Amino acid sequence: MVKYLKPSPLHIVMLPWLKFSHINPFFELSKRISQLSHNITFLSTQPPIDKLLDSIEQTDKFPMIRLIPLDDHDLDSLRESFQKFLEHASLTPDWLIHDFFPDIFISTAAQFDIKCAPLSLIGAAANAFMWSAVFEPVDPKLDQLTKPHNWDPSRISLVYKPYEARQKQEQQMLYNGSTKRKSDQYFMSFGSEDFLTQDYVHELANGLELSGVPFLFALRSPAGGKPFELPEGFEERTSNRGVVCKGWVPQIEILSHPSVGGFLTHCRWSSLVETFQFGQTLIPFPFAHDQCFNSRLIVEKGIGIEIPRNENDGSFSSVDVAKTIRLMMVEEEGKKIREKAKELKREIGREELHGQYVKNFVKYLEENRGLKNKL
Known about the structure:
single chain, alpha/beta, 5-stranded parallel sheet, 15 helices, 45% helix
């Protein structure tokens, strides 16, 4: 009888982008892989490492995860500290699972014969459109961004609206709580990188006030920029049913709270997954990148509704904000969407399904760790 030796534990290095919207999904995957008896070294900068250390010290479930800070003074210092880590690692890494870092990090790993696996936090449908139709041209034209492409196998409108396309072009140039009743409070937040304009803030705030719905508004101003101003007297008039938090908020904790019944979001994929797992309704308010395609997907799948906006300049009214929030939260017309959100929660919550995905992924890493990098 042939006996098969159990493969030795892998040593996997995780390198997410330096924002918590990327760090959190990478860390969740790290925890799942470590529970399969594999070693994880999680690399990031000092502030997020400190926060993650606090969370790990509260439990002894993840002894196989090491957290290592990198120097982030600039891109060169980040790469140099990454190289020093590889040079002095007591346990040679088998794999580097990385975010969309520059090629210098991949080539550095290749010098040590470390296999690399990119982990994209963008949904598959949006990824296909963005990389093939948007990022290939150095200076994409408006019609390349607003018209469907023949290769698109989906039946979803994977195109930018004109105002989104113009925002995308501009960005391409730059690159070159509560005591409320159950499920009656609306949460509005726009992440750590996508910032509103002052006009948008006024329309959204006035819409919240007109809706009459209890709310939590996470209003984060641009770093180093002028703080956003709410409409005069807004906080006083809504103090009996709403809270404005001008800074970072614990998004997962808020979405999981029983008083919260919906989410108006910029539509990053990681935020959507967090929303789905807690059965919240969605009002997508995309800015650019994959957010626009994620919004189309949500609307066409019947699990959310966009606020009506001008197709050419992206403008919208506070009246439409109020109508959309009320439709999602209290109107009979939104009942089917609320029921679909609950169904999606049950599907997303299938732990055995997610566990099998991780096992299949780790099996692939084990079977291919001996292969050399091909640059």
